[in-house]
Automatic annotation (TrEMBL):
<protein>
    <submittedName>
        <fullName>Chemotaxis protein CheY</fullName>
    </submittedName>
</protein>
<dbReference type="GO" id="GO:0000160">
    <property type="term" value="P:phosphorelay signal transduction system"/>
</dbReference>
<dbReference type="InterPro" id="IPR050595">
    <property type="entry name" value="Bact_response_regulator"/>
</dbReference>
<feature type="domain" description="Response regulatory">
    <location>
        <begin position="4"/>
        <end position="120"/>
    </location>
</feature>
<feature type="modified residue" description="4-aspartylphosphate">
    <location>
        <position position="53"/>
    </location>
</feature>
<dbReference type="InterPro" id="IPR011006">
    <property type="entry name" value="CheY-like_superfamily"/>
</dbReference>
<dbReference type="InterPro" id="IPR001789">
    <property type="entry name" value="Sig_transdc_resp-reg_receiver"/>
</dbReference>
<keyword id="KW-0597">Phosphoprotein</keyword>
<dbReference type="Pfam" id="PF00072">
    <property type="entry name" value="Response_reg"/>
</dbReference>
Length: 122
């Protein structure tokens, strides 16, 4: 069965790039631009992995990761945080919120796909 990945990214170009790369690698993708719809969409599609931008308008990706970890239906889904936040301590803060992986933008395709594959179950 094809693995489903939810891509949470408000930047249209980044979202399209991530989705195109994932589709080219045989994944099904669920793009989400609106941070306010992330948890509802995740519960509806139950993806195998969530790729989460941290800087979203109106809500922080860190808050969404924490909320997903508290949600019984979502807590086991790995989250790959992808962010322009790359200051000292940011990775620790994002991982302590519950992110399973962390990549700093700009992201190269090879490390991106390696991180995705490392976090997918089975």
């Amino acid at each position: 069965m094809m693995k489903r990945i939810m891509v949470v990214e408000d930047n249209d170009l980044n979202r399209k790039l991530f989705c195109d790369v994932l589709k080219a690698n045989g994944f099904e993708v669920e793009p989400v631009a609106d941070g306010g719809k992330v948890l509802e969409m995740a519960r509806a599609v139950l993806p195998d992995l969530i790729i989460m931008d941290i800087q979203l308008p109106g809500i922080s990706g860190v808050e969404l990761i924490e909320a997903a970890r508290r949600d019984h239906a979502l807590r086991e889904i790995p989250v790959l945080a992808v962010t322009a936040f790359a200051a000292k301590g940011d990775e620790d803060r994002i991982r302590s919120a519950g992110a399973s992986g962390y990549l700093a933008k700009p992201v190269s395709i090879s490390p991106f796909m390696n991180a995705v594959k490392a976090l997918l179950p089975g």
